[in-house]
Amino acid sequence: MIDATVVELSRLQFALTALYHFLFVPLTLGLSLLLAIMESVYVMTGRPIWREMTQFWGILFGINFAMGVATGITMEFQFGTNWAYYSQYVGDIFGAPLAIEGLMAFFLEASFVGLFFFGWDRMPRLAHLTVTWLTAIGANLSALWILIANGWMQNPIGAEFNPATMRMELTSFYDLVFNPVAQAKFVHTVSAGYVCGSVFVLAVSALYLLRGRHIPLARRSMTVAAIFGLASALSVVVLGDESGYTATINQKMKIAGIEAAWHTEPAPAGLTLIGLPDLATQTTRYAIKIPWVLGLIATRSLDTPVEGITELVAEGQKRIADGLNAYHALETLRQNPDDPGAKAALAASQHDLGYALLLRRYRADIGAATPDQIAAAANDLIPDVPVMFWSFRVMAGLGFYFIALFAGAFYFASVRRLDKRWFLRLAVLSLPLPWVAIELGWVVAEYGRQPWAVEGVLPTFLGVSSVSVATILGSIAGFVLFYSALAVVDLALMVRTIRRGPALSP
Amino acid sequence: MTGAPIPYDILRLIWWALLGVLLIGFAVLDGYDLGTAMLLPFVGRNDAERRQVRETVEPNWEGHQVWFILGGGASFAAWPPLYAASFSGFYVAMFLVLLALIIRPVGFTFRDKLPNYRWREFWDWGLSVGGFVPSLVFGVAFGNLLLGVPFGFDNELRLSYTGSFFGLLNPFGLVAGVLSAAMLAMHGGTWLAMKADGAVARRAGLAARVFALIAAIAFALAGWWVATGIDGYVLGSIAHAGPSNPLAKSVTRAAGAWLANYRTYPALLAAPGIGTAGALLVALIPAGRVRVLAFLLSALSVIGIIATAGLALFPFLLPSSTHPEMSLTVWDASSSQTTLFLMLVATVILLPIVLAYTAYALRVMRGKVRIAEVAEREGHY
Prior knowledge:
The structure holds two protein chains of two kinds. In chain A, helix 3 runs antiparallel to helix 4. Chain A has helices spanning 4-45, 48-82, 84-118, 125-154, 173-177, 180-211, 215-250, 252-259, 293-299, 309-335, 340-349, 353-357, 371-379, 385-414, 421-429, 433-446, 469-500, and strands spanning 159-162, 167-170, 271-278, 283-290, 452-454, 458-459. Chain A has one domain. Chain A is mostly helical. Chain A contains 17 helices and six strands. Chain A starts with a helix and ends in a 6-residue tail after the last helix. Chain B has helices at residues 8-43, 47-57, 61-78, 80-89, 91-110, 117-147, 165-168, 171-195, 198-229, 260-264, 270-284, 292-313, 337-364, 371-376, and strands spanning 151-153, 159-161, 231-235, 251-255, 316-318, 328-329. Chain B has one domain. Chain B contains 14 helices and six strands. In chain B, the strands form three sheets. Chain B has a two-stranded antiparallel sheet with strand order 1-2. Chain B has a two-stranded antiparallel sheet with strand order 3-4. In chain B, strands 5-6 form a two-stranded antiparallel ribbon. Chains A and B meet through helix 2, helix 3, strand 2 and helix 17 of A and helix 3, helix 4, helix 5, strand 2 and helix 13 of B.
């Protein structure tokens, strides 16, 4: 049996290090493009203020970039160190986009970022501009391949189980790359990064304007951030909606958790705007519902029902039973790899094999599972509804708030009234909000995928390495200490750089 | 599992070679960054000198580090059982490497952001440790590959590793670790001697010669040990294009078996020959003459030493000391034929592009980093 403490600690470590890594990634995504835009204006107009802007925001970008790289190495290591069975079981598919990310994207970004900082006086203007754009493109391509890998965990298409190697293997690279879930997630995630970069530039510029410092730089920066941010904020919400729609392909339970939909409702389902979901009684108190809206978002139709948690658990029980057929066939094949009956049975039920593996939490010889154990395993499919419900609502609410914020900034910039102090204060106070929204977005996406590491294919608890509790406790303690110290240093340097401001303008 | 136009066994051979290429790319390019970082507080005696050292690598090291990240990613994609077994088996060692590698990006970026002496001193030593630890651990890990590491699989291919971190620190593993650390210190030394001027270049040239000698001695000692004191692994018959399942073969152990490939193909002895000759020539270069040629000799030596270990192990990737028959080999620990083929296509297209812009980036930053110019840039943070 797999040690439950090892599972919990491995999950905790992954969650901590991934959420921490993603404090830096969105700012890299957003700022790199903003730098490229600012430098383009410099090259086109020849005005030194735009070069100064590029260099000033570039210093902040550099501090953040170092943290992003440092914490990203952890992610590449961690599948192997802590999720060895996961790596062995799905590496044939999951490893490919990670490797291509290195080859196509990270190499590009990392090779040119040094020239961005150190090449100003060594290269012609146009060459340097190209370097800046390539750095930004590298960062964005990196997100693409990582989200293709992550999209496969949400919607594992283009792969099948191979009994000879006891693992999942790639059948269609095309399906893997053009996975609709991955594509929607990619645009949603990079747009969120652009929003993050734009809010950052907006808030710091607003601070300068409030204090009457660096006004030419701050005004121009704010205008760029307003335009870029508005487009990005609209894109985040639209593509978030697309993500919601694609999730209904195979993650109905995630949608049901977000909506606290305890039971299937007749179509078109109403959207619970707000309420108090209660996991113990499986009810939502004080729910305020808007009729039809959920059905429209999730199914884009008026006659398809949105399935509820109770019904999805019942379906899960059936899939576990079917998965056991595949499991028995697999046992037969291990004795006799050419048994035609077992081959046929495996082929018929292999899409449910993962469901049978959910039983491993209750017994090692899952072939002999009792109906009670099957029911218990099916109940494990229920997500943490209150967390999902609230994370999603805060994230989505902030998404709409950013549209309003940037629309305001855009308006004040176009009528040249960036001196409205109440608005500048609002912009400064908005600084932490993109991070809140983005981290909650990952909670919805990944915590909402539980109990699966790969939806319907591999339960999370089976993916762990055979390492001891003490070992993982040690590495978690190391990460917490190390990362906390780095966070303090990172913040202090950021604040110091912002206080000092750009080198030239007053 | 067909559909790929290249036979499975050939793809596996190519990916074994590519794994070597990535490892060598990492050691030759990022190796000099690691070696330079290692030497930083020793060859730079004041703040300007230390900034000079740092400036020789800072614009380009980030790109070079990707060779290592890609090595991890490529072994995940092409050799999933190897990635799973080595990273989880060497958990504590990998964790140490990770912390060391995390110090580099922040150390390089943060050091000069504050003028404070203690702050800079802290990052200088942090970078030095950050260069030394991975260099040592990679060597220790390689040494333990030759000894075999204790792991096995159950019939669902769930891996269990029964060794400990301190088990890796056996005498042979430590010799391999010293070899690796000295080799990269030599490489960083020749880089600095070529790229810097003044006192830093002089001290770096001396360091390069000393570490080259240590590397050559450790290499010879390790070679002698492998030939006389370590039982190698011998693979029984196995289908070279069979499914990747490491539970269907027989493996025996025999004295001197790691030299079998060299006995069969004596031409392969060029690898240890180049490894030794390169290091010895670096050691013999007169003081003050350690420049471009020395750096190239050092790079050749690095290539030769790594190739020596890889060729000795072939076709083993990760031998198991407790369950030799479950060892991971080139023939039964790869990805599917489809994945290997697709990844090969991606590599053939993208790797030359990477090499081209790596060369471009190095060219933009060409020329010596002179102490006079570095000293002028004070207050640049």
